[in-house]
Specification:
This protein is 33% helix and 19% strand. With 412 residues, the chain is α/β, with parallel strands linked by helices.
Length: 412
């Protein structure tokens, strides 16, 4: 079976508008969580989020087209431009028939949905945008990216809540191994930092309410965690059959070694307290990669900073990795970025790859008092130097969906 390699990375995140800016910030222990601007509803009990604030560069897109795009599509275009440039891939050839796109999203075009609902109520049905429907569709980010770059292979959108990005990458691995494409641009986008979403999550008691200290609000695995911080962004990987990459002289940045998926089949929103689904997806990924638990050198945890979720994942890691967990470094980069919902797994995959490339493990910010129920080898507050060769990235979502991805160094 031909290896599947990663040849390009691109992202926009609360830490920066490129993969380089994002990595430099997280490795330096910086936070992207800030106060919401004043134009958010003053009645909201939560006033913090991880927002993309830098200047966005989607490439050559006409102004009138930008007006017809939901923010989630715009963020995806920015990440796609960077990832394809990094991989030195252009769709302007016959080979584009074999280049596919898989961009997931947990919610899709909710900015557009809310704006047009307001227009309908205030100005009537005739004033609703004729582009309202395509702008809100979750798959439109993948469609628009394919249109702008001329990528004519499989075009997919995985909508599996907070596992969307991981599923998009994992299912792209299956396509490449099956020979149905030579290259896949895979990941996810999310732009759900809006009043309605914040209110919904707040009423679920899911969000941190540390409004007076935004940078310290997201605290995965910490005893004082009180909920996650909503974030936005997009991250995309260029995945490629190794033989195809060699033939065009591309530089592999990492290998995608394995993928596992499972369902808790337990609860709509809460994780299975027995952690069965999380364990099954990690074990499936290890089997898919033909690796033993002791072969893994780093875990980028899903841990969102919720009281229930973090301890369940810690239990799953203990059960899967056994005594190896005592010396297996673990971090949750959501301490710095917040939770990007559907795009979380894609961004965390990118950060896992950079950890393998650089020999630097990103920290879990604000992990001041580790919860005894989350006893692991935490990379707490400061980055750690370690020549990791294999990393696993976990993603779990509403509906009991689970995914795990395993990456290896390019020379592994």
């Amino acid at each position: 079976m031909d290896d599947i390699v990663v040849t390009g990375l691109g992202c926009v995140s609360p830490l920066g508008v490129s993969a380089g800016e994002t990595w430099d910030a997280i490795a330096a222990g910086k936070s992207g969580i800030t106060r919401l601007p004043d134009d958010f509803d003053e009645r909201l009990p939560v006033r913090i989020a991880g927002r993309v604030t830098g200047e966005l560069n989607p490439g050559a897109v006409e102004h009138k087209e930008l007006r017809r795009m939901d923010r989630s599509i715009l963020l995806a275009l920015c990440a796609a431009r960077e990832a394809l440039a990094d991989a030195q891939i252009s769709g302007a050839s016959a080979a584009a028939d074999r280049i596919g796109v898989a961009i997931g999203s947990g919610i899709g075009g909710i900015h557009t949905f809310i704006q047009n609902d307001r227009v309908y109520v205030e100005r009537g049905p005739s004033r609703v945008s004729p582009f309202f429907i395509p702008m809100t569709l979750a798959n439109m980010a993948a469609g628009v990216v394919a249109i702008h770059h001329g990528l004519r292979g499989p075009n997919l959108c995985h909508v599996t809540a907070c596992a969307s990005g991981a599923h998009a990458i994992g299912e792209s691995l299956r396509l490449l191994r099956a020979g149905e494409a030579d290259v896949m641009l895979a990941g996810a986008t999310e732009a759900a930092v809006v009043d309605l979403v914040i209110a919904g999550f707040a009423n679920m008691q899911a969000l941190s309410r540390r409004n007076d200290e935004p940078e310290r609000a997201s605290r995965p695995f910490d005893s004082d965690r009180d909920g996650f911080v909503l974030g936005e962004g997009a991250a995309l990987l260029v995945l490629e059959r190794a033989a195809h990459a060699r033939a065009r002289g591309a530089r592999p940045r990492a290998k995608l070694l394995g993928y596992g998926a499972s369902a808790d089949a337990a609860h709509m929103a809460a994780p299975d307290p027995a952690s069965g689904g999380a364990q099954r997806c990690m074990r499936a990924a290890l089997a898919n990669a033909q690796l033993a638990p002791a072969d893994v050198d780093y875990v980028n945890a899903h841990a969102t900073s919720t009281p229930a979720g973090d301890s369940v994942e810690a239990k799953a890691l203990r059960d899967v990795f056994g005594t190896h967990a005592d010396r297996l470094p673990v971090s949750s980069t959501k301490g710095a970025t917040g939770h990007l919902l559907g795009a979380a797994g894609a961004l965390e995959s990118l950060l896992s790859i950079r950890a393998l490339e650089t020999g630097t493990l990103p920290p879990t910010l604000n992990l001041d008092r580790p919860d005894p129920d989350c006893a692991l080898d935490h990379v707490a507050n400061k980055a750690r130097s370690a020549r990791a060769r294999v990393a696993i990235s976990n993603s779990f979502g509403f509906g009991g969906v689970n995914a795990a991805l395993i990456f290896g160094r390019a020379d592994s």
